């Protein structure tokens, strides 16, 4: 099983980035997908989640209205569109998958997002 994130980088405050996570080796359509992030010296926190079929999503209060999670089950991909980025959004962003039938959990390796002028 692999979850491969991409799309991170350096962006100025107010800018946008789109993170992508492509999964392989699992039944993607049976997985709830989430994005977490971890800033230096802080605990990993949930950013956004989306149900297996894409019909339900949820967000941390800190990103509501700025971030949008989506998925394409045909491409085994989950996206995180991030807008109006703030310096406090700086963190390593991780993709997470949980098979809701079997309960298996998987993590990606993370992608760095840095918001700075």
Describe this structure in words.
By secondary structure, this protein is an all-beta fold. Helices cover 0% and strands 53% of the residues. The protein contains no helices and 11 strands. The protein has strands at 2-6, 9-11, 17-24, 31-38, 45-50, 57-59, 67-72, 77-82, 91-99, 105-107, 111-115. Strands 2, 4, 5, 6, 9, 10 and 11 form a 7-stranded mixed sheet that branches. A hairpin with a 5-residue loop joins strand 9 (91-99) and strand 10. The termini are far apart. The mean pLDDT is 97.
How is this structure best summarized?
It is built from no helices and 11 strands.
Biggest beta sheet attributes: 7 strands, mixed
Distance between the termini: 37 Å
Oligomer classification? single chain
Total of DSSP H or I helical runs spanning 4+ residues:
0
Number of strands: 11
Beta-strand portion reads: over 45%
- Radius of gyration (CA) equals 13 Å
Helicity range: under 10%
Q: Would you list the SSEs in sequence order as H and E?
A: EEEEEEEEEEE
The stretches of 5 or more residues where confidence is low (pLDDT under 50) are: none
Note the overall shape: globular
Overview features:
four-stranded antiparallel beta sheet, mainly beta, 117 residues
List the SSEs and their pairings.
Blueprint lengths: L1 E5 L2 E3 L5 E8 L6 E8 L6 E6 L6 E3 L7 E6 L4 E6 L8 E9 L5 E3 L3 E5 L2
Parallel strand pairs: 2-11
Antiparallel strand pairs: 1-3, 3-8, 4-5, 4-9, 5-6, 7-8, 9-10, 9-11
């Amino acid at each position: 099983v692999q979850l491969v994130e991409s799309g991170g980088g350096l962006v100025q405050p107010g800018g946008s980035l789109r993170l992508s996570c492509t999964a392989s080796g699992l039944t993607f359509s049976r997985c709830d997908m989430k994005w977490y992030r971890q800033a230096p010296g802080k605990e990993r926190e949930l950013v956004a989640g989306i149900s297996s079929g894409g019909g339900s999503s949820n967000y941390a209060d800190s990103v509501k209205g700025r971030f949008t999670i989506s998925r394409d089950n045909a491409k085994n991909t989950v996206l995180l569109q991030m807008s109006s980025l703030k310096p406090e959004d700086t963190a390593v962003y991780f993709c997470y998958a949980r098979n809701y039938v079997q309960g298996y959990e998987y993590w990606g390796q993370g992608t760095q997002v840095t918001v700075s002028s």
